[in-house]
Each structure stands twice: as structure tokens, then as C-alpha cells.
Amino acid sequence: MKVAFNARLLKSPTLRGWNRYTINLLVELSSLDIELFLYSDTPLHETHLAKLPKDSYQIRIAPPMRYALWEQYWLPKQCEKDQVDILHCPMNFGLPWSSHCSRILTLHDIIDQVYYFQNIPWHKQVNLADIQNKLYHWVARNRADHIITVSEYSKQDIVKYLQIPGNKITVIYEAADQKFHNQITASQRFQVRNKYQLKNPYIFYVGGWEKRKNIPFLIQAFANANLDGVELVLAGGKDEQRDILMELGKTLGIGNQLRLLGWVDDEDLPALYAQALCFVYPSEYEGFGLQLCEAMAVGCPVLAARSTCLPEVLGNGGETFRLDDVNELSKLLIQVFQDSDFRDNLKQRAAQKSKYYSWKTTSYATNNVYLKSIT
Questions:
Q1: What are the residue ranges in the chain where pLDDT is below 50?
Q2: pTM
Q3: Integer angstrom CA distances of residue 177 from 119, 297, 317, 348
Q4: Which residues pair with 207 in a beta bridge?
Q5: Where is 7: in which H helix or E strand?
Q6: Per DSSP, what are the bridge partners of residue 169?
Q7: Using one digit for the tens of pLDDT, what is the confidence trace for 180-197?
Q8: CA dihedral 185, 188, 189, 190 (to 10 degrees)
Q9: How far apart are CA 167 and CA 307, in angstroms?
Q10: Rounded to 5 degrees, what angle do the CA atoms 371, 314, 344 make?
Q11: What does the CA dihedral 335, 337, 338, 340 come to, rounded to 10 degrees?
Q12: DSSP assignments along 154-220, one per residue
């Protein structure tokens, strides 16, 4: 079977979200009886390609052209030229209106429609860029022969808000990278602590710092917990968001306990999770929440918001907390810090639940979708 991927986002060196999903899936699919083609309008970044087995794929780069022409004309023509059976777009949008092969879309979530657009005045949505963006998304999800999404919660939202039939959607979970399952040596732990100057016990978060990630809620809960000698370490975010969070920390009297690491190297994440008292995910809306899988794979105690897909993904691998009152999270933070038996129990639950998620399982399930789409 020949499968082509819309791989244009792999031009960026970052390994967040959609790129992490794409690379891990490609690695596992390469071990199956599949001939892979990577399509893009710009060269793909070498750091991503280095993760793929040698000679497991072929790259096709289009000549310079407008994006709409590339998506709607070049993609289907190249599929026909390579005689591919499946065109898979792993990033919510990017499928042509028509093609000679089956089209599969991974629609991770509909956060834009459910969360963002409902909170933006209509007159601010009426501009050419937004109209084009909505059109690209509409074409992809309505012209796809089948849709893969990453949680039952996301599927429910897709059916409810986009009116897409449930029998057109298959839920296939994501998983943590293999490096999160590997043993973390004492040397690696020391190097990471030294690199980020982490001298005290800490509560950990990694991810975006935008509004839906709900970071002020975490900072408030941490302040209320009043954990002497403990730091709140936040990785990710953008530089322009730092001042607001630091000002909040100072206002709450925890300015000297709040550490904003910003963007951290991907290879440092396993050791950052592993040495944390716990990982906290206070997000208001997620399609999957891959950080939960990463933390659980390392055996880090996990606390997650009782919202959207997070309880589904976490299962019994950790504890959840409500988002309408910070006191529940504050009490959990205190218990994690003071009760070593509770902390050890969370570690065991996390490690056990992490076995449920695997990229090999994801690739087999994805391959089944391919096979059903061409029969």
C-alpha cells in the first residue's frame, strides 16, 4: 500500500503537537507493509527526517506556488503521479477538494470552533485570513473519506458542533515518545537540575501559556497551598507572557518561588518530569493532552483538570480537580508534598496507566483505517 502524507509542517524544527504526532506515526508505519511519501511545498527539516528509518520514505517538494494552488492542485496531481492509495493529512486541515485516492484527515480537536471563536466578537472574525483558514478546514473535514480523532471527547465535539456523522470518525489515542519510557540515569537528572538551576523540590507544568491553558489558576492554587521550600516550575510559553505571570506571582507573594523556564530542550523533558513532585495540567480545553502520557510514562505523579478529555486520557493514572474552585487543587498539592505514600501511589498508577498508550498500537489502528478506506 502507498500512503502519502501532507507533511508541510515538518519544515519547522519544533516538535510540539502535530509534528510530534506525525513523526511518531511515520516511524511506526514504516515498519508495516506501507510505502511512504512525504509531500510539502518547502523542504522538510533534517531533525525530523533523522528520526525516520533510512530509506523508509520518499520526499516530494513542489515548485514555488501559492498555498491554495499547492493544496488543491499540486497535491492531488502528485498523488495520481505516484499512484498512492491514501492521502493522509495529520494536522486538521490540508486536503484537496477532490483526488483519485482516498483521503484521511486527523482532526485532533475543534478548539477553534468550540473555545476560541465563541469568545471572539463576530466583527473581529470577518477578515480575509480567517475566512481562508475556515475554508481550508471546512474542505478538509467535509471532503475526507474518513476522520481520525484522538479522544472520545473530541469525537463528541466533532459530531455535535460540526454535524459530522459518528460512523465517519475513528478514535485512535496518541502516546508518549519512546524516550519517556527509557530509564533516566542519575547523571541525566543531575545535568538537567544543574542546567535549569533547580535546587528545590518543584511542581511542574509544560505547555503553552495562552488563556485556555489556565496558568493563573495553577499559580493561585500553588500560592494557596503555601508549600515552604517548594517551587512552581513552568516550562513553555512565550517571552511576552512572562511579565504577566511574574506580576501575578509577586502579587500572591510567591514571586521567589515561581520559575518560568520558557522553552526547554526536548531531550530535557523526561528528567524534568521525573524529578518533579508532580505534574499539573490545569487546561480548560484539550483534544488529548499529550503531556499526561509523557508524565505517566516517566512515572511522575499527575494532577489534571476535570475538564474536556483530560479525565478520559488520565483514567486511574492520577487525580483530577475541579476548575471552579482552586481549593481542591491546593489540597492535592499539599497532599503530594506532605504524604510520601500518596505520592508513591500516584507514581505507580501513572506508570501502570502509561502501558495503555503506544505508538505501535496507534499505527496498527491507523493502518486499519487505511485498509477499510480502500476496500
A1: none
A2: 0.91
A3: 34, 9, 18, 19
A4: 236
A5: none
A6: 147
A7: 999 999 999 999 999 999
A8: 120
A9: 25
A10: 135
A11: 90
A12: HHHHHHHHH---GGGEEE------GGGTSPPPHHHHHHHHHHTT--S-EEEEEE--SGGG-HHHHHH
